[in-house]
């Protein structure tokens, strides 16, 4: 197992395959284990890098999560890329990891080649999600399938990680309310936004939520594209695994 140091704590990472670096960034309450199946598909073409953000998976724990969580996690990725002397990497971020990926591309454009941002809320938190997250998370703790997911991702201390994440989400929505420090017009990397039309987190708000939110973002960025899967849930990249893999490889191979 490999680690790098950030804020005097150990951040776990694993590298498999050879070629251009491709980072997978996990979502909230998850770890890099969420990518264990799909990552294998990429290792013949890329050096696949799996990272557990601080407080998650095999990385050192945090007593509580910073309020500006997705920016703090982006700082971890930038520190990692600089330590490894990686530049012009490709990034796939899912859900909260998509927010981190965009933050990395905004803050350190020289380090990033292309970004796929999958199944995320947009530029700011979704009110219906943040208002209900505490209750929803408490219910999830009593759902055997979800508990098994949490345990698989983190181990026996999963409940503290879920609580830390819940508290950060609530506090962020009150104190900050936006995911990115810089305006999207400064994003230079080629970007693809993906999601499922049946994503359970946003489809109840609006059946065309991603279409509207992603469309506005691409307009602000000034380039990029989006792809919405008609089937699958959250996250789209794992519930449409084969189709997503083919889409992503075409995106990474496109030299235009």
TrEMBL record:
<dbReference type="InterPro" id="IPR029058">
    <property type="entry name" value="AB_hydrolase_fold"/>
</dbReference>
<dbReference type="GO" id="GO:0016787">
    <property type="term" value="F:hydrolase activity"/>
</dbReference>
<dbReference type="InterPro" id="IPR050266">
    <property type="entry name" value="AB_hydrolase_sf"/>
</dbReference>
<dbReference type="Pfam" id="PF00561">
    <property type="entry name" value="Abhydrolase_1"/>
</dbReference>
<dbReference type="InterPro" id="IPR000073">
    <property type="entry name" value="AB_hydrolase_1"/>
</dbReference>
<protein>
    <submittedName>
        <fullName>Alpha/beta hydrolase</fullName>
    </submittedName>
</protein>
<dbReference type="GO" id="GO:0016020">
    <property type="term" value="C:membrane"/>
</dbReference>
<keyword id="KW-0378">Hydrolase</keyword>
<feature type="domain" description="AB hydrolase-1">
    <location>
        <begin position="21"/>
        <end position="120"/>
    </location>
</feature>
């Amino acid at each position: 197992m490999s680690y790098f140091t950030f804020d005097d704590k150990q951040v776990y990472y694993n590298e498999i395959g050879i070629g251009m670096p491709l980072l997978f960034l996990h979502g909230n309450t998850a770890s890099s284990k969420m990518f264990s199946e799909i990552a294998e598909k990429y290792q013949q073409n890329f050096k696949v890098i799996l990272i557990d953000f601080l407080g998650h998976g095999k990385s050192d724990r945090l007593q509580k999560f910073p309020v500006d969580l997705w920016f703090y996690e982006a700082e971890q990725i930038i520190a990692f890329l600089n330590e490894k002397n990686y530049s012009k990497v490709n990034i796939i971020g899912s859900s909260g990891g998509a927010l981190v990926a965009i933050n990395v591309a905004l803050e350190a454009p020289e380090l990033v080649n292309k970004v796929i941002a999958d199944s995320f809320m947009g530029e700011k938190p979704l009110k219906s999600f943040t208002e209900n997250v505490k209750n929803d998370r408490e219910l999830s703790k009593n759902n055997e399938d979800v508990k098994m997911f949490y345990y698989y991702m983190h181990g026996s201390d999963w409940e503290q990680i879920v609580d830390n994440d819940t508290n950060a989400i609530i506090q962020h929505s009150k104190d900050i309310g936006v995911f990115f420090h810089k305006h999207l017009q400064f994003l230079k990397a080629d970007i693809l936004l993906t999601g499922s039309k049946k994503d359970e987190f946003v489809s109840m708000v609006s059946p065309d939520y991603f279409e509207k939110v992603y469309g506005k973002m691409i307009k602000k960025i000034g380039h990029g594209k989006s792809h919405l899967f008609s089937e699958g849930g959250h996250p789209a990249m794992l519930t449409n695994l084969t189709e997503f893999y083919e889409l992503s490889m075409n995106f990474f191979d496109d030299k235009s």
